Amino acid sequence: MTSNRRISILAAAAALVAGPALADDVVTVGLIVPMTGQQATTGKQEQAGANLYIQLHGDTVAGKKIVLEVKDDAGAPDVTKRLAQDLIANDNAKALMGFGLTPLALAVAPVATEAKVPEIVTAAATAMITEKSPYIVRTSFTLPQAAAPMAQWCLKNNIHKVVTLVADYGPGNDAEKWFGDVFEKGGGQIVEKIRTPLKAPDFAPFLQRVKDDAPEALFVFLPSGQGAAFMKEFAERGLDKSGVRLIATGDVTDDDQLADMGDAALGVVTTHHYSAAHDSPENKAFVAAFEKANAGMRPNFMAVAAYDGMALLYQALDKTKGATDGDALIAAMKGMSWTSPRGPVSIDPDTRDIVQNIYVRKVEKVDGALYNVEFDAIPAVKDPYKAAKQ
Ligand code: PHB
């Protein structure tokens, strides 16, 4: 054998040894979100948030290289499920993230359970989602967490008669129930409960009913992406000048769309866990870096939840010293706490849901642009739906 040939055989043998080791050094994370269709803004915000985390913290943690695979499910649950299965079987994904709507997160729950792969829910917000698999951890929020404080604010601020209007599916039902129950328990009256279709809603006939009811306030939950269309119709029907006060969860005055909503949004009071105007050094740095990396975009609560989903995974990998076993990662995530751009957060070890401050905010103009300006905070709010069951 020539010495050249011997060297090439040795090189081939070395490559065989190095090959599997290299594959083990990669942790593939599947981000499954709607990048097209009605919920496309959620996908774009989530992708930008996750990428920003990697950009700012490096793509290596505990000796592992993080590779983010972004997949578009166009908001269809059967597609979400198939993409989750493909990512695990073909790409050896060690964590799945995203899920822009509740039915999309639910479709993946049995896949996560069977494969023992963490499902980090960074968008969907119906309270019961985390009960559907022991491998689900959530960094977004729950609707009971956001809606119950809004009812308390009304009771404190002399609002007694309210109509509720919610999108007719999981998170809308949660918002209607938790706003309504807390409000009625405190002596308030729900005049009417209105539900609007999730797909392509026409708000005009529903707003006519609100006008006829003439309540003191209208409480609204709509998923991220529908707020601008609603606000336009609210103003066109003259409701902004009718004396009906608009109150909502922060999904409606979503930072992704707020700047274009116009003056009809001024004064709208909402409760939520994130505002781009949150006054902290961490958030100022986050918003500046986000706007620099994504020209023309302002981060919303979807972007921050995906950013925090990556933060959670990085910290968990650090704790497991790079081990990617699903049970070890979930155990590491339970009880984890850190400072998010939204403020202090932690993962409730019993429910795997995020514990976070809920802020009371009012839409105001700051340097000529509309923002949700926080004026009160309820610290360390746990999901009340699960707290009530414990
Ligand atoms: C959901 O479908 O769970 C969902 C989507 C968008 C939101 C909130 C909840 O803004």
- Most strands sheet: 9 strands, mixed
Oligomeric form = single chain
Output mean pLDDT.
95
What form results from the Cα inertia axes?
Answer: globular
Topology pattern, helix = H, strand = E = HEHEEHEHEEHEHEHEHEHEHHHEEEEH
**From the alpha-carbon coordinates, what is the Rg to the nearest angstrom?**
23 Å
**In percent terms, what proportion of residues is strand?**
15-25%
DSSP helix fraction: 40-55%
Total number of helices: 13
Protein architecture, described:
This protein has 390 residues and is an alpha/beta fold. The protein has 13 helices and 15 strands. Helix 2 crosses helix 11 (301-319). The longest helix is centred in the first third of the chain and has 22 residues, at 3-24. The protein is globular, with a radius of gyration of 23 Å. The termini are far apart. P-hydroxybenzoic acid binds next to helix 6. Residues 101-102, 124-126, 170-171, 223-224, 251 line the site of P-hydroxybenzoic acid.
Write the layout of secondary structure elements.
Blueprint: H1 3-24, E1 26-33, H2 40-57, E2 60-61, E3 64-72, H3 77-91, E4 95-98, H4 102-115, E5 119-121, E6 136-138, H5 143-156, E7 161-167, H6 170-185, E8 189-196, H7 204-213, E9 217-221, H8 227-236, E10 245-249, H9 255-258, E11 269-272, H10 281-293, H11 301-319, H12 326-333, E12 337-340, E13 343-347, E14 354-366, E15 369-381, H13 384-389
Parallel strand pairs: 1-3, 1-4, 4-5, 5-6, 7-8, 7-9, 9-10, 10-11
Antiparallel strand pairs: 2-3, 11-14, 12-13, 13-14, 14-15
The structure holds P-hydroxybenzoic acid.
Residues 101-102, 124-126, 170-171, 223-224, 251 line the site of P-hydroxybenzoic acid.
